[in-house]
Amino acid sequence: MAENCPRTLVRAERVFNYTVHNKCRRPFYEDLVSIFGALITSIPLEGHSVGLFSPMFHFSFTAKEAVSSLASLKVQQIVRSVDKSGKAVSSTTITTYEVGAKGSEDLMRNFLEARLIKCLTTSDSMAYKFKKKMLFQLTAKGLTVVELFCQRSGVSLSPKLIQLGTKSGHKNPRLILLERDQTTDLISVSESLIEILFRRFMGPRPNTESSTFAYGSSNGMACVREQDEIKGVKVHESRRILLREYKNCFSGADALVWMMENTSAVNQGEAEELLHAILRQQLIAPIDRQRKCFVVDKNTYYQMTEIGWHQSQWATNQVDLSPSVSTKSEGRERSPVRRETTPVNDQRQAMDRILTNPALKMLFREHLAKNYCEENLNFYQESGKVISQFEELERTGFQSRAKVNACISEAWIVYNGYLAEGAVSEVNIDHGLRQRVRDGMTGTAGTGETGEDEGDMKLKSSGDSIPGADETGMAKSLESRVRNLRHIMELLSDVRMQVYRLMASDSVPKFLRSEDYQY
């Protein structure tokens, strides 16, 4: 790329959205996995040992290295393309994550609780507790999250990460991405979602194999998953409990492990709530019938109920249900897996139902991913967040310059990720609209803070003013920014509507005819 090629440089300092649930404070899921992906792609994964005679743990990193990297974490996203005159152009977004020392330690605890990494220098029972002198490796779930981050942000996997995936036998395992409420970031739970999750939890047939997860593996991953598809929870083919023989039962501890390692649950509390929901819907029952809630314990066992058997894939694959436990449930009859998902004739009505139904939305996302067009739904959601952010600013009268800057910056991140020519997740829109968006965005780029590069927009982490600027100049500058921001939002809204129509007219009919919908 020639040094004098036109370029737009956007610098953004991301502000984390935090949620508090069950007295636990953590960043929103999307922020958490973005920070984690940025960390792992920037940190050196080297070989470490924990003692003179201990084995060498390859592709590992220390707590000190992680905390140091988090303190100055940056992600650079570059989109290079050619304009209509044939001239090379470049658009770059540099995202900076401002994390202090205390915040770095809290994030490392979040990563451990989410089972994205595992400690190698402590006992298995303490492997997900953070201490300053620790050595870590990625789990299979963590590597999957990093791969998804790289795909969506346009960051290349480092040779170390590619080598790690090859050596560990990591073959793109499927992670069940649960939909979340955009305001609270809590998992959106519905009866139909729990039934679909339960089918995957039990697997196509009883999983009686030994765990495929190796603790503290020296080949580079703390947890190695050797299969492409997600297997069900580990069940005991036969177990003697309270002087009786039970078939295909599983422990509460194994259920928790499965839920944490195969879904996007970020802590034990979320995993337990999903298991509670499965129990409440009478899909499983404790062998000790006295228990009314799910207990995470290696000595507490559960078994599929008759209702659960009919809802599971075991019935399809003709796996007999053990008659050891009476599983008749009061007031509940067998019903189809998705009572909320009756097909509709109107495509837009179907699209709206998908967007508001957690179970359908999860299945629709997986369908789009299989057909290599998941970026449409991702853009629709992320642009919607930016537009909501703008509408909130509009309600308050655009009083905060910093928040206006932040909204412009978020819009640029969406543009570079989905709309710029050559973007890694470029959405399919018509040429005329794409050119209008490109002209509109590059036309507003020169209104940022003064910097060395054209279009430099560096967000201030605090304060709503620029030192040394007079009030009149500030007012004019803010007015100009608001005007440009309105124009950007109009462009995003136009693209968002076209993407919505594309999904409704093309993707939705295919989805409703697919096995994904019938699942």
Structural notes for this entry:
The protein is α+β, with helices and mostly antiparallel strands and 519 residues long. It has three domains: 1-167, no CATH class; 168-330, Winged helix-like DNA-binding domain superfamily/Winged helix DNA-binding domain (Arc Repressor Mutant, subunit A); 370-517, Regulator of G-protein Signalling 4, domain 2 (Orthogonal Bundle). It is built from 17 helices and 14 strands. The longest helix is centred in the last third of the chain and has 43 residues, at 471-513. The radius of gyration is 25 Å and the shape is globular.
Keywords:
single chain, 519 residues, alpha+beta, Arc Repressor Mutant, subunit A, Regulator of G-protein Signalling 4, domain 2, 3 domains, four-stranded mixed sheet, four-stranded antiparallel sheet, 14 strands, globular
Strand segment tally: 14
Oligomer: single chain
Low-confidence stretches: 211-216, 223-228, 323-327, 329-343, 446-474
The strand line-up of the biggest sheet is: 6-7-1-14
Helix count, per DSSP?
17
Q: Kindly report how far apart the N and C termini lie.
A: 48 Å
- Report the biggest beta sheet as strand number plus sense, adding barrel if it closes: 4 strands, mixed
Helix content range: 40-55%
Radius of gyration: 25 Å
Task: Tell me, briefly, the overall form.
Answer: globular
Structural class: alpha+beta
Task: Name the average pLDDT.
Answer: 78
Task: State the domain count.
Answer: 3
DSSP strand content: 5-15%
